[in-house]
Amino acid sequence: MKPNMEPPSPSAAAAAPTTCNRKKRKSVASTTHEDAKRLKTVQGGEETPECGRSSRSPRISVLLSHLQQPITLNELTELLHYAALGRTGGIKQPSWCRLLHQKRIKAVNVVIVEGLTQSHFYKHYLTLQHLRTNYTTRVTFNPTTSNLASGIFSSEVPKSEALRQSQSSQIHKALRSHPVITKFGTHMRGLTAYVLPQEEMIKRHFPVKGMPGFEEFVCTDSVDCVTDSSPLYGLDCEMCLTEKGYELTRVSVVDSDGSCVLDELVKPQNRILDYLTRFSGITAAMLRSITTTLRDVQVKLKTLLPSDAVLVGHSLNNDLMALKLIHQHVIDTSLLYRREFGQRFKLKVLAETVLKRKIQTEEKKGHNPIEDALAALELAQYFIKTGPRQVVELHLEELWGYTLVEEPDCAPTPSHRFADILQTLGRSVAFLGKRSDVKLDVSNQMWHNSDKEVLASFRRQTKCPFLSVLQFSSSSDYLKRCIPAEEQQYQRVCANLRDMCVVFAGPFPAGFSEREVRQLFRCCGAVRKIKMLNSAVRVHAEVEFELLEGAMLAIKTLNGLKMQGQSIKVQRPVYESMLDLDLTLDALMGDGLNASHLYAVKLNPSMADCIHISAKVNGHTLDAKGSTTINGTRLQHTATKSRLSEETVRDTFAHFGTVERVVLPAKPGKHARHAHIKFESSEGKHIALTSPEHLQKESYLVCPSLTPPHLPSWAAMTTPITTVDPDEERSHMHISSQDQEMDLMMRKLDRRLRKLFRSLPDGTLSVVVLLGRTSAHGHIPGLCLMEVKQTT
Predict the structure, then answer these.
(1) Collapsing DSSP states into helix, strand and coil, what is residue 452?
(2) What residue spans of 169-215 are helical by DSSP H?
(3) What is the value of pTM for the model shown?
(4) Would you give the DSSP letter of residue 596?
(5) What pLDDT shows up at residue 733?
(6) 740 in a domain, yes or no?
(7) Are residues 568 and 717 in the same domain?
(8) At what angle do helices 369-386 and 347-354 cross, to 10 degrees?
(9) How far is Cα 300 from Cα 596, in angstroms, rounded to an integer?
(10) What is the reported pLDDT for 407?
(11) Are residues 496 and 366 in the same domain?
């Protein structure tokens, strides 16, 4: 008997994250094998899974060969097609990235942010905390002249036999909105697909550990994750009414084979007011000699149930409340066989219709909990074995009262548009954004005037669409309104970012040339541009590096260098826009993309001696002829150039940890002078950074990586589309009220994207596209950020 028992209403906001219920148990040996297999499968992909992530969780990484190449709309849709349809739909892995464990993808969500570019992301890098910390995969995006949302929905999916068979077996149009189909889809899946996630357990008033009102409940010894081979146990309880409410009087449990493994009468703690014999079958005589308490039953259940057991019952929350028991993994048959508007079938009706068995009949005195537990168990086993689609089709008229009208045989030629294919497979699609020319049925579009309304509308939906595309336009609207014009605003962004790669150096000896400055500073990294600054008395230089790392090493190693008895100073430019530079550099060092990356420069032998001795004797002397003298030793700048090779770099840095990858950037026909080193773990990077003496012997300068792996050159990424007068450019370097407004707008955007990400179901492929811009002057690249949301 299941009386209506309402527990304390817990706050959904306090809900702990959903537990992963799909991780397979493996031996240490098999785990090692899987890791090796994974590394082989990724084939040079950029990202590796975080330590706490299940090896079976879906994840995405960009192939090394494509990491520094911008992706196009076609390549983005290539990924979305594979994520949604996979190999079972005849779709191949994308050519530019790898999505592992695609079958575990539960939904695909794309957010299109109009108006923003890749440069805007790094200009407001500190502000965009959610985007920079929760998306572990980034790649440059080539802007498109067409509507991106429309391009996604209307993209053509490659024809395949598997897809044709899927379309030929599509469900009747009238069934696509059936409550069972919309919840569980049409494909047969294992039992873990039907285990209630924790947020739904909270919503359905199941006892959940840590939630208010359940502090005195007993927890079973459950593992965090169950598998499709975990055992099912049917459970049913009977209750009576006491002075304190409903209390347990009988509990029955059956195992996966249907055998009864527990059937106990229980003496309520408080005085009984009503035995509810009509429903429970319990009488005063039956309980008179019973001494078994609720505590005794709790101990027996904890002993009986395996750690990976899945409890099955009908309105199971009432049983667990009566038992004052918390169990992590449950299947509720009243929520499997769903009705419209949240109504539920009685167990008696389901047993008679589906199992062809009569239970709870009039001639019996009360319910038999063994019989009810067995019925719930077999209903769950039948649903899992048969699959949601067949369950609906076989019992459509008996249970749900539907009668299907046959459709004409002359069906139209199947469409190969992405949105159409998903809908024929019973998967929902939706667009939320401003009204625009999106090639999608109007019934699948929701038009809103602001980003706030778009987010609120999406979060109000009771079920996340399988494919959802959201359009955020506030940043684009702001940039169109702001003064100076949008192009000038972008040029200011570029100028601010380029200044991060700039150092000022001097004073140099009289007559010191641009060529000599380049020879000196390129020991720290590739030099992009040098501007000589000649005052009436002394010579200074502005040095712009290709990478942030070059500027960092120049300040670290060349500041204080003595030339003809006078020290030169190497420092950052001082502008208001650079006041937070130290925070930005710290954040870039801690960026997940750079966690195990190191930047290294191989010095010429003579320059290595110069810098190493300088560190010990406080400087060295450069004579007027372009050579450096240290304790009588002359350094010639025309000395033999150092040459890097992957083998020598690996040999040197393997002392600190396993080197996963070495990248040697070099222009055509030139030898590489610096290297990007990726260790297998961040520990190797930290050991290298704390071992300067060993690296000095090998003539290496090192620092933490700052430039994200998908950018070949930080400075080149920020090159404006038109040239700007340097003086005019500098005049805009102060922090204006418009900069502050832009920063505020970015904070709002990041906050909304964080709220959206949190509302996505676990296993959702989340893609955020900063659209970039296309104008008469050329392309301004955008940025594509990708992550598969995992159980946290």
Answers:
(1) helix
(2) 179-184, 198-203
(3) 0.62
(4) T
(5) 46
(6) no
(7) yes
(8) 50
(9) 49
(10) 56
(11) no
CA dist., res. 312 & res. 307, Å (int): 15
Q: What is the pLDDT of residues 399-449, one digit of tens each?
A: 998 777 665 544 455 668 898 888 887 788 999 998 887 888 887 889 998
Instruction: Please report the pLDDT score of residue 499 as a whole number.
Output: 85
Number of domains in the chain: 2
- Answer yes or no: do 550 and 673 share one domain: yes
| CA–CA separation, 706 and 591 (whole Å) | 8
Q: What is the residue type of 455?
A: L
Bridge partners of 237?
Answer: 251
Calculate the CA 149 to chain-centre distance: 21
In the beta sheet, which residues pair with residue 504? 542, 571
| Residue 455: pLDDT over 60 | yes
Q: Is 437 exposed, middle or buried (0-12, 13-18, 19+ CB in 10 A)?
A: exposed
**Pairing relationship of beta strands 569-571 and 502-508 according to DSSP bridges:** antiparallel
Helix (H) or strand (E) holding 787: strand 782-788
Same domain as 212, residue 325:
yes
Angle at 554 between CA 550 and CA 556, to 5 degrees: 115
DSSP state, residue 717: H
Residues 719/699, Cβ–Cβ less than 8 Å: no
Segment 532-547, tens digit of pLDDT? 988 778 889 999 998 8
Structure tokens belonging to residue 290: 């019973």
Last residue within a domain, chosen from 337, 361, 386 = 386
Q: Are residues 368 and 494 in the same domain?
A: no
Q: What is the pLDDT of residue 119?
A: 87
Give the whole-angstrom CA distance, residue 694 versus residue 700: 9
**Containing structural domain, residue 331:** 189-386
Q: Residue count of the chain, please give it.
A: 792
8-state DSSP, 390: H
**Rounded to an integer, what distance in angstroms lies between the CA atom of residue 258 and that of residue 371?**
10
Top-confidence residue, 777 or 145: 145
Q: Are both 220 and 368 inside the same structural domain? A: yes
Do 369 and 503 lie in a common domain? Answer: no
DSSP structure class, residue 173: G
Of residues 165 and 630, the one with the higher pLDDT is 165
Which amino acid makes up residue 421?
I
Domain end point (choices 370, 386, 402): 386
DSSP, collapsed to helix, strand or coil, labels residue 265 as: strand
- Whether 456 is covered by a domain: the verdict is no
Rounded Cα–Cα distance for residues 696 and 603 (Å): 10
Judge whether 146 lies within some domain. no
- Find the CATH number of the domain harbouring 614: 3.30.70.330
d(CA 472, CA 753): 10
* 737 within a domain of the structure (yes/no): no
**CATH number, position 215:** 3.30.420.10
- Please state which of the ranges 109-113, 123-127, 733-737 shows the lowest mean pLDDT: 733-737
| Cα-to-chain-centroid distance, residue 633 | 56
